[in-house]
Design goal:
72% of the residues lie in helices and 0% in strands. It contains 6 helices and no strands. The radius of gyration is 21 Å and the shape is globular. The chain folds into 2 domains: 135 residues, no CATH class; 32 residues. It is an all-alpha fold. Helix 2 crosses helix 4 and helix 4 packs antiparallel against helix 5.
């Protein structure tokens, strides 16, 4: 949805509201599926309650609270679900609706980033012997640094830009003189 909106903006083409509504419906159903699967995963973890459960419970209630519940849960799932449901039933002004879709797309990306943070960093925060927590500090340079993370975030967009330049998916209409 975001890529469609950004590419349309740079191409100076109008953003079709029916396309955004269709993408919004698909995103709504995918978020419901994601929310359901995450809930089932949590129920299964609670039911099994292995030896790692207490460490994970401490980790979730302290070090990963903001990224798990606020960023991933609230901003990345709950707010987009509620907003997309309202957008399907209520008619807003077209410009406002497009802006809301753009913001919801950013919220979902924040949720996806937070989920990846929770999986990768959360897995590194507790020791494998379950004897306590380790510390993780994000550096600026190096293989685990912020600059490398920014590179890996921007690389897919660079590849997409190259592929759009090489194989444009839209019909090129020759301009008349």
């Amino acid at each position: 949805m975001l890529i469609y909106m950004i590419i349309s903006y740079f191409r100076k083409k109008s953003i079709e509201l029916n396309v955004l509504d269709s993408i919004g419906k698909f995103l709504f159903f995918v978020l419901i599926l994601d929310f359901t699967l995450e809930g089932l995963d949590q129920i299964q973890r609670i039911y099994e309650a292995e030896e790692s459960f207490e460490i994970i419970k401490l980790l979730v209630s302290s070090k990963l609270y903001l990224t798990l519940f606020v960023s991933q849960g609230l901003i990345g799932t709950i707010i987009p679900l509620i907003t997309l449901a309202f957008l399907q039933f209520y008619k807003y002004q077209i410009k406002l609706k497009k802006t809301i879709y753009f913001i919801i797309g950013i919220f979902v990306l924040i949720g996806v980033y937070s989920m990846r943070w929770n999986v990768v960093i959360g897995g590194q925060l507790f020791s494998k012997s379950f004897s306590g927590f380790t510390s993780f500090k994000v550096g600026l340079i190096g293989l685990d640094g912020t600059l490398m993370a920014v590179f890996w975030i921007l690389l897919p967009f660079a590849i997409l830009a190259f592929l759009l330049w090489l194989l444009p998916p839209w019909k090129m209409i020759p301009e008349e003189d």
